[in-house]
């Protein structure tokens, strides 16, 4: 036997990568996976990859794969209609798809209602892009594509954190600065499952160093396991806990002593004076917001150089000021009373005592009070640290949040309260505090710091979707109407997917009033996604899919969604395909690198089945639909991350020629290395196949937004949400002008300082909508991620099931032991879990680490078609979560939570 | 600390292993008893005894993953009770065969008897050395199994040769020792929580007590039970006890960290 | 003398099973057989509950009960403390499994892969393919150690000469090295942190230390 070779590649199965690995190949067969130890000093987790990467070899050789292209034999579609797959050649399959696409080009790219005829749905969290080859190039040159048919996002993601995080501090994802943090208060933030290897590595280091972690969540998760303390909390009441902490800091402590007054005065809108209508009081001439200078005893513009001591508290009479309300309505005031927004904050949180919060959350008020104290004392207000030669405040406290906390009703309250608490002690974007890891909505997407531009009123510029009468998009361009309904989701390549991506499905079957009902797309393409499992209310989805005329599914295995497809295109899997992808910097869930660059994904052996590289598929589709010239030109322009032609080099493609994947990526490799090295290194594909990655240093100071905020003299738009309030009124007017009132409840969320409006009640009362009695549904059913499966598209890989079963909850629904006993249940008994819209069966795991009123169904299983997965036999909560407007919040998200009842299977 | 949820049964030595303990043990016990009491049809009983030991060995082989390598089983006489058991079993079979088929002799009988005793003792020490199984790994296990095997042997003797010398007295003594050793097994002072759990769970204590009591009935005055009935009681009672310990009580020792590490 | 051992930092372990799967892949163990795994343990009563992850594997005991009971001498202990099985001698009697207090030994009953009898190409290359009907277990990746030493590498420091699980750990919870060398990292950790070994009351003298 020859010595094994080790081929470097990357893994981006979850939203935490890409991480680097090597595949051990013996006699042409990949046999093992190992970390890429060449990157020990460069990768933030020393070149490690998580459990999922070790399943990739089996994923490749899985005999249950779709092994060649297939077309549907049965013309009817439905849950009860076997597709009767017929194998075909790649030529035939591509011709069929290209034929449908050419039909679209002949008939017009948008349909009669105005929606794109081509729709594309991708799997979770941007992971498909790392396996996409050049498919995005084809889609980019196609013209209008509808990406808005969701596969579960909104309900399965940190939706409200994404939107408001980017809005407040360019933080699509918020992480703690683990190397410095002293205290993490985590509301269900499941870092040990979803933080990737970097999260695991950094947190382990931090724990050993002495970082304290408090985990507040209804069940004791894998993250709670390594926490110093677990505090069980009633689902969906996290915001109340935070409000209790806010009250405690602001009313039970001496806030002037414990808060970072400098930060509040100079880095937030705390001193901005608010007028009687709730808008900033502005200078009547310059229209700049006013601040009361308590030394001068007069109001001054926020950026007045003579401003010495902005007042945070009190009432001040301003001789002449204006308020600019919605639609730029100016209200002129003389002798008006203005109050700093901080003063309003004090008043706002006054009723939310720890006793009140304790009652709501089912937590001892003393605990809330203690955590408030620990939070401010660990914030070390006044401390400083030097990073890369820059002196910065050190504020080592971070409040983190997880799914179901950061999405759906109550999430706005939660993310606002968190941001405000952090800002009280100046713990925003400084060492030790909460940091944005990445941006996905603002531009430029690759540079978070660069995206901070000077905007109006002393804040960073925001490019919210317009709500004024001229520019508001009255007629949606895509089926989820993200621009129409969701100002905060902006208008970038990710925005469609983050719009209310469940609405197209809901509205297809239940069109609301005065709205262009979504049409089924002529062609629907799906890649690395299985919405029939991952979406909520999957039965409704099935009803919609029956009417889709043509579905082309890139398929690894048969699954519940491609059950409805017309063509299956088995593309190369992770270890079979080829792609160069960006790595490093700060990115994704919790990646904080001190390097940035690119890494290769390469075939580690001949593909065992008749599959095709996605780049070659995209090139074929471009060619067959007459778009090859545009396709090659777009690649030359740099759509794959690097321009193929600059004044220093020229690797451009001949626009008329069809290239193989290797040729395209070889040129991208060369362009990437030339760009990153400023023309010093030119490495092609062969070099990358041996070396795996090319990195250049990335300064740690770039992890923090603070220096940019200081340099640009910007303030965080906290705590007062004047702009949000205004936008809400404008949006209401626009919708009402079009007789749309079904979004009114969502518009109530647009508050300057959100009230606690009992979000759990919305979920508790939902059964009434289906004519059921809420009292019957006594359990909260929630979910939790598993590192072994999250985002991985790997449920059909049996070795993962083989190891995942050692982690509680992979084989059963978790329930409190005493409650189960009282119901006469034994471990392993089968139970029915029933919500107002359906019921699922599963085994029960009785454990102590879960609230008596809560059930947890891990991940999302419940497969009935997908091989291997269908034998896992663990229920999926998605089937039980009703898809309704009632459960959709103002940002357009729902939450993984539903009230259920439980019964033993007889 | 609720350790209960971490207790599960071993699945390595199941019915076939029990077969060895029941058949082989009784076989060895049979020879141990039958020879001194000069049971009628001793030759046949000797052969039956050897056949039972062989049947026990066959059970073990059937349970083993690589029975073809069985010969290697005697390599570790120094420390392994299984090697010793196999060695004594082989000796016993050999001596009995020679004695009953080729050259009847008192020397061979004595050697066979010593081998049977060695075999029963070694077999009884086997479960005791299984540190994974709290219900086996006790100081009383081996004495109990020795008593059980010999009592079962006495039971067979009673069935086959009810008129044998002193049988009632032997039965009484054996039944009493089974009861005494069994009681001390169930109540040994060094018992861990796991041993107690194994005893407590799923009615095991009732099975154990039941088996011991059935065995003890053999010690009843001769007017109550014939030697044959007493034999049946002995066989049944000791089998129930062995079944209870080998199958029902064979919970594995959970691997848990010491409590102080968790605080 | 050298005595190979491991320190496992329970503060670091997150129960992700990366070591479990890395071991499976590298050693080619079939489904349901785990030369190592991380146990997910819950102790206490609601709401005072503690959940901990406990990595388990062969403890390479100085006084291995498995070795004592093994009738065929298939189980051996090397000078450097590694307890291994000579698969050509094992008869698969299972006695060692019942003697080992740590659930570290696994009987491979049949040649079955993850897709039942249909072995994939990588599965066909598993070094365990001809080890059927025998007891198997962790051998501290002794081939890696031996080959590494032969190449002048340092087990515990150089990944290629270190057990696969150690290199795979994403939280640096596993440290491998020479317990007899007071300057090794493993010795230092065991010395400096509160440490325990599992089930020492069994008189096994394990070479795996847990620190917290």
TrEMBL record, chain A:
GO molecular function terms attached to this record: 4 iron, 4 sulfur cluster binding; metal ion binding; molybdopterin cofactor binding; oxidoreductase activity
Signal peptide: none
Matching SUPFAM superfamilies: ADC-like, Formate dehydrogenase/DMSO reductase, domains 1-3
Stretches assigned to coiled coil: none
Keywords attached to this entry: 4Fe-4S, Iron, Iron-sulfur, Metal-binding, Molybdenum, Oxidoreductase, Signal
Keyword Iron on entry: yes
Record Gene3D superfamilies: 2.40.40.20, 3.40.50.740, ADC-like domains, Dimethylsulfoxide Reductase, domain 2
Domain 4Fe-4S Mo/W bis-MGD-type: 4-64
Family of this protein: Belongs to the prokaryotic molybdopterin-containing oxidoreductase family.
Identification of the protein by name: Molybdopterin oxidoreductase
Organism (species): Caldiarchaeum subterraneum
UniProtKB/TrEMBL annotation, chain B:
Predominant place of localization: membrane
Topology of the protein relative to the lipid bilayer: Multi-pass membrane protein
Keywords for this protein: Cell membrane, Membrane, Transmembrane, Transmembrane helix
Membrane-spanning residues: 12-32, 44-65, 86-105, 111-130, 142-161, 167-185, 205-224, 230-247
Highest taxon above the source species: Archaea
Cellular location(s): Cell membrane
Keyword Transferase found: no
UniProt xrefs under Gene3D superfamilies: Formate dehydrogenase/DMSO reductase domain (1.20.1630.10)
Entries under InterPro entries matching the protein: NrfD-like (IPR005614)
A cellular-component GO term for this protein: plasma membrane
The family this protein is said to belong to: Belongs to the NrfD family.
Name this polypeptide is given: Uncharacterized protein
Biological source species: Caldiarchaeum subterraneum
From TrEMBL, chain C:
PROSITE patterns noted in UniProt: 4FE4S_FER_1 (PS00198), 4FE4S_FER_2 (PS51379)
GO molecular function, one term: 4 iron, 4 sulfur cluster binding
Residues covered by the 4Fe-4S ferredoxin-type domain: 4-33, 49-80, 81-110
Sorted UniProt keywords: 4Fe-4S, Iron, Iron-sulfur, Metal-binding
Protein name: 4Fe-4S dicluster domain-containing protein
Organism: Caldiarchaeum subterraneum
